[in-house]
Amino acid sequence: MADRAALAAFLRARREALQPEDVGLPRGRRRRTGGLRREEVAALCAISGDYYGRLEQPRGPHPSEQVLAAIARGLHLSLEERDHLFRIAGHTAPRRVRRGDHVSPGIMRILDRLEDTPAQVMNHLGETLVQTRPAVALLGDETAYRGFARSAHYRWFTDPASRLVHPESDHAAQSRLMAADLHGAYTHDGGRSRAAKLVDVLHQESPEFAALWTKHLVLGSHCASKRFLHAQVGALELHCQTLVDPEQSQRLVVYTAVPGTESHTNLQLLSLLPLAERTASSIDPAPPW
Question: Where are the domains of the chain?
């Protein structure tokens, strides 16, 4: 059931919290109070001023999901605020669809400050969206892949060359991490998602993955240190720190080394190396999703 009083109070509070500059409107000299006017919000939401005014009084009709979605956009609500709006209006909150290719401005600002550090932004399917130069020097240009090969999970279980970056003794543990990570994406997204298509393909192409999948491995929140083998600078033991952007289903992964160690010295050498070139073998046909 809709809570009209709560809906009205919530709309008023969000309208009064927004400033004209927040939504691209001129403030004007005659504006005496902060916040937006009702008619301005109505215009932003593409609904009539009378209709919106009745929602705030509260004496308006029961708004549809389409109207609520328009209001959420017009008031620049976060996903949490949008879900709350739907609930107090008597609707089920929309299912959140995870989108993997757009990197938020905030994450990009952080990445821009990591020019001398291996760091990259990845989505929940293990697809690398952007890398710093040291990350390319360490791992190669992971943004060059196409099709299913965009996913680090797919490459790990289908391309032996992808494993050369880690010592062979670490491969079993890395396989478990990859399977557990993809299991989490599949559980969240469901059986008709991109994650599900990736799981189906890996079941067909990798007996190792198929065996690990039956174990229902769960990935913990701790990102442990990783050992790397680099053809030019040698061995590196790097600590992995992860910043998660839940709204975009992305994570900023940063690799660091303990100062004074050989790994720290080798890591500094990475910034002096030329960037890895894309290879023709990295280009696969686009997957059917």
Answer: 4-88, 105-282
